[in-house]
Amino acid sequence: MKESQTRSILAIVTLDEKIIVDAGIPTFLTKNKREQEQISSELGRVLGGNVYGLANGVIIITQE
Q1: What is the rounded CA–CA span in Å between residue 59 and residue 16?
Q2: Are 11 and 60 in contact, with CB atoms under 8 Å apart?
Q3: Who's near 21: CB < 8 A, 6+ residues apart?
Q4: Which sequence spans correspond to the domains of the chain?
């Protein structure tokens, strides 16, 4: 049987302040798409994580 791997979400980067919830995950609110992509890329590099864009426009950084 194959073991399932779970990944922790290290950070969330969003344009929509309604998405922000108090869940203990650092959440960054950005002004525009360009800033969102830049911050996500930098966080991914610094945290050593994987960056994923979701269908609702939110970007998450997960543990590698």
Answers
A1: 11
A2: yes
A3: 27
A4: 32-64
Say how far apart CA 1 and CA 61 lie, in whole Å: 28
pLDDT for 15-55, tens place per residue?
999 888 787 899 999 999 999 999 999 999 999 999 999 99
CA distance 49 to 31: 23
What residues form DSSP beta bridges with 49?
63
Of 11, 5, 7, which is closest to residue 44 (Cα–Cα)? 11
Instruction: Say what the pTM is.
Output: 0.84
Amino acid code (one letter) for 64: E
3 state DSSP class of 63? strand
- Token pair belonging to 57: 């426009």
Closest C-alpha among 18, 22, 28, 25 to residue 56: 18
